Amino acid sequence: MTTPAHATVTWTTHTPAIYSNWKGVTSSADGTHLAAFRTNGNIYTSADSGLTWVDASTSIGSTKTWNGITSSSDGTHLAATYGTGASGGIYTSADSGATWISQAGAPNDQLGPIASSADGSHLVTGAQNSFANRLIYTSSDFGVTWVSRTTSGASNKSWINIASSSDGSKLAATFTDGTGGLMTSSDSGVTWTLRAGVGVTSYLFLAMNSDGTRLVVGKVNGKVLISSDSGVTFTEVTTLGDKVWIAVASSSDGTHLALIDGGDRRTPGAILISSDSGATWTDTLAPTGNWQTVTSSADGLHLAASDYANGIYTASITPATFGITYLANGATSGAVPVDNATYATGAAITVRANTGTLAKTGYTFAGWNTNAGETGTSYVATGADTLTMASAAVTLYAKWTAIPPAPTVVVVAVVAPMTPEGAPAIHFTSTEVTCSLGKYSQAPASAVYTLVIGEDAVSTHFSNALIPSWLVPWAGKTTDYGNATATSASWNIQSSWKGKNLSCLTLAYANNATGSTSVSAVVPPL
C-alpha cells in the first residue's frame, strides 16, 4: 500500500476585488463562516468557506482602523475592535455580520486583540495605546457591558494577542511593555498570573485549545513554545528554531496547529501545519505573501489566512494517512490479518484478532506488540482493543508465550508404617532379664533393644546389622550386633540392679519403616 508522508494542503483565494491592508480573519468551528477586515477599511464576511464575500460594513458606516475580530463557534456572533491613539471601541453582530451594533458600553480605547467563548457571550480584549492604564476588559453579555481588569500584574500592558477557552473561563494574553510576556487567568479574567515559562520576551503570538489546557506561543525573531498545563510550564519546539513567528492557530483539541513564519529579506514567509500537537511540522507550500494571521476550524482541517496585499486565502487539508501491518514474528503456520485501510494521525483503530489462526510450535499466541522482541506496547487480539494512530505507519508483531514442558512424573514408593500393636514384655529369671519385642503392624526384619537401669543406658543389642546405627537414638555403653533375635533380647542380671527401675526400649525395622515402644519394671530381689 502507499502511505502519504505528509498531509495534502490546497490553497485557494476568492477575495473581494480590494487587494490591500488585509489584516485579521476569524472562522466558525466548521470553517464555513469567515469574517475578515482590512486595517483601514471594512469588514467582509463569507458563508461558503471563502468562495464568495460580502461587504458587511453597511451598518457600520465609515471605515475604521480595525485591530481584531472574533467569532462564535457557529459563526453567528461576531465582535471586532478598532481604534487609534486613546480612543476606539467594539462592534458586535448577532447575525453573522449582516448587521452591526456599536457597543456604547465598550471601553473608549485603542482596543487590539479580542477573543470569544464558543457561544459568543464571553468576550475579552486588551488595549494597545501608548498611554498608561492599558487594561484588559471582559464581557459576559455578548459585549453589551464590560469590566476593566486592573488586578495586580494585568494592567498597563500593550496587549498583543488574547485567547479564550470555549467556556470563557480560561484566558491567556501576551503583551509587550519593554519586556513582554504571557499572563493567564482561570476565572474569566478576574485574576491573572504571570507565566515565567515563556521568559521575558515581547511580540508573542498565541493560540489555545477549547479547554484551555494547551497553549502555543511564538515570538518574532524567536522560538515556538508549547504548554499542556494551561501555561504553567512550556517546552520549546526545537525542530522549528528561531524564525519570524507572527501568528498561530489551533484546532479545538490542540492536535492540529497552523503557524506563520513571516520570513525575512532572504527567505519568503511560509505557513506550517502540525497534526501531532506540534511534534512534527510540514510546510503547506502556501503562495508567497505578506502573511498576517491565520485561523482554524475546530477540526484543524480548514484554514484561512490573510495576506496583507492580496487578501484572504483558504486551505483544505487532507490529513496524512498511515497503514498498519501485522507480522507473524516466527509463526510456523497460519496467516496474519490484513488491514488495507489507512488512518489519519490520532485515529482510533480496532486491533485485529488472530483471524488467520497464527500458530508457533511450542508457543501459544498472546496478542500483538509494537516490537518484535515484545518490549513495546502490547495489544490483545480479541477484536476489542484499540490503538491510536501515530504520525507514522504502525507494525504489530505476533506475540508468543512459550508452552512450559510437561511435568515429570516421579513414582514414590509408599512405605508401610511400623505401627506398634502390642507392648513389649519383660521377663526375669534368677540370672537373666529378657525383653520381648511386642507386636507391630508388619513383621520386623530386625530389632534393636536398649536396656536402661535407672537413668543409665546399659547396652544395646541388635538382632542383625540391617538397621543403620544412626537410626538408633539409644547408644548404650556396649553395642552387640548378635546377642538378640527379631523378637527378643536377654541380659545377665547384675547384683547392683536389684530393686532398681528397669526399662526396655525397642525399635522394630522392616521395609524402610521403623516403630518403637518401651516397657518398665523393677528388678526383683532374686
UniProtKB/TrEMBL annotation:
GO CC entries: cell envelope
Matching InterPro entries: InlB-like_B-rpt, Listeria/Bacterioides_rpt_sf, WD40/YVTN_repeat-like_dom_sf
CDD domains: Sialidase_non-viral (cd15482)
Signal peptide positions (record): none
Principal location class: other
Any matching Pfam family: Flg_new
Cell compartment(s), UniProt: Cell envelope
Stated name of the protein: Unannotated protein
Species of origin: freshwater metagenome
